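Hi everyone, sorry if this is the wrong subforum. Our group has a chain we'd like a structural model of before ordering constructs, and none of us has done structure prediction before. Sequence below.
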Amino acid sequence: MKLRSAAVFCASFLVVLAIVIGVSARRADSYTFTAIDVPGATVTVVSGINDRGEVVGWYRTGSSGDPDSADHGFLLAHGHFTTIDVPGSRGTVAEGINNRGEIVGYYFDQAAAQRGFLLLRGVFTTIECGAFTEPRGINDRGDIVGRLENHGFLFSKGKCTTIDFPGASFSSAFGVNNAGQVVGFYSDATGRHGFLLVHGAFTTIDPPQSVATEAIGINDHDDIVGSYEGSGGHHGFVFSNGQFTNVDVSFPGAFFTNIFGINNSGEIAGEYDLTFERGFPPHGFVATP
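Answer:
Right subforum, don't worry. Here is the predicted structure as tokens:
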């Protein structure tokens, strides 16, 4: 595998009126959960899933305080794990995968600088919109979204465009579908909220009784997934047809659930913790409706 650089530039992004959604929440237990743990890993996080059921994420084999420990990306396809490491990097994290098998994520170079990458057919391309470039999602057209310091970004056709929720002190984009709809979250004086961006117009995504929301993934049916802080802890959610559904991992002792991706079959992917307070080691999962 070889590495080649692609320099891109940032531009402003059109922002329009934000609209708050208010709907009722309901619970669902109609998912079959499968734990995903890379063999020998102390930490496994599943961060993306495509329509073939291929998942990507990252893992760690040492403890968080181990100076020799490093993060590694992975692809799980047809029951087989493949490690993803950008050549020469000090750590690699895979975040998203599309139906063409293109994988995005970020890595740390030998100077500990964080850079984004695109992986296609064994070839890594650096995606660099500026300092702290963190690609999170990719659609089948090759549009990439992610975080750039305190801003979200869209990388499309060689151009990087910032995404900022109006009036927010922080914005991050996480998922994009084939219609170009983008989800993410922002922070302002009232707290942390999810958002949906369609044709330049922002919509706030907040489950009822949420005190902090992150919208992370979206499929081509406009189903949105993410997580929120609310009554009883940290919950995953699916937002579909105007209604929120709590989706919490059903493994014994699981407390935290984060949902990071959803495909067009409704399969969801993410992580869960077996601790009352969020912390390592998390485990990955895939849930099938």
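For your construct planning: The domain at 3-288 is CATH 2.120.10.30 (Neuraminidase). Residues 42 and 61 are 5 Å apart (CA to CA).
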